[in-house]
Specification:
Pfam families: DUF1684. InterPro entries: DUF1684. With 250 residues, this protein is mainly beta. It is built from four helices and 13 strands. The strands form four sheets. A six-stranded antiparallel beta sheet has the order 11-10-9-8-5-12. It has a three-stranded antiparallel beta sheet with strand order 1-3-2.
Length: 250
């Protein structure tokens, strides 16, 4: 499907600014996922039973150093219980010498596509609004996320009203399209959203990135809600991670 007629296509200056920073963004993404606590390094996520206290030292007990002498490290994570909403406290284990890092080559991506730099409008809501998001490993259950506004634009005459959630102070858009499950990750892709004063926002789908679940099975990634699914192939942004020797992260 051609997208050259989309009414929300960005200006030439906005497109050139996006193009100018794209190579640096690509390099930063590759470096970030192979970092000691990057997506590839997550080797386990532990959720102790309610009332059970597990220290970081206990979680690391008996875990040997990797082939480069690095040790597994531990950090804490918190989430809301899917039924009660009460906080749950977990532990993530990271290995800077994880097999996924050792086999990783790069993240495949589409060529820069100027037609997928879109100008949209962000309309904030007056109160904090919670919307349910299904997550990959929750067997169809949903977890509420704060969605502080709506993102609207028109694509080939079709209006879209997308929801980005507050991810620790950053707006994160979880979006699906017709490339998911073939050229791109089946669970959709992520896009960081930065509204400008006055509500203008640039959706540069060249920077749509594969979610953490594409790199490690120990994440529980949110999936695109129905309103965030574009009924076209978005042939821009990241495709899938590339590994050597037939390695698969799952």
């Amino acid at each position: 499907m051609s997208v050259t007629s989309m009414s929300s296509r960005a200006s030439a200056a906005t497109i050139e600014a996006a193009r100018a920073g794209w190579d640096a963004w690509r390099a930063e993404r590759v470096a970030s996922v192979r970092a000691p606590q990057g997506n590839l390094a997550l080797v386990e996520t532990l959720w102790p039973a309610p009332g059970e206290e597990v220290s970081l030292e206990e979680a690391l007990a008996g875990r040997p150093a990797g082939s480069t002498g690095t040790r597994v490290t531990a950090t804490r994570i918190e989430r809301a219980h899917i039924t009660t909403g009460e906080p749950e406290h977990g532990i993530r284990l990271w290995d800077a010498d994880a097999p996924a890092i050792r086999h990783f080559e790069t993240i495949d991506a589409f060529p820069f596509a100027p037609e997928w730099v879109i100008e949209a409008v962000f309309t904030p809501v007056s109160d904090e609004r919670l919307l349910p998001f299904e997550h990959l490993r929750d067997a169809g259950g949903t977890r509420d996320r704060a969605v502080p506004g709506d993102i609207t634009f028109t694509l080939d005459g079709t209006p879209y009203n997308l929801a980005a959630f507050d991810d620790g102070g950053t707006l994160l858009l979880v979006v699906g399209d017709r490339t998911n499950g073939s050229a791109t990750y089946g669970g959709g892709r992520f896009l960081t959203v930065e509204p400008e004063p006055g509500g203008r926002v640039v959706l540069d789908f060249n920077r749509a990135f594969a979610p953490p679940c594409a790199f490690s099975p120990f994440y529980n990634c949110p999936l695109p809600p129905p309103r965030n699914r574009l009924d076209v192939p978005v042939e821009a942004g990241e495709k899938l991670p590339v590994f050597r020797d037939g390695f698969l992260p799952h």
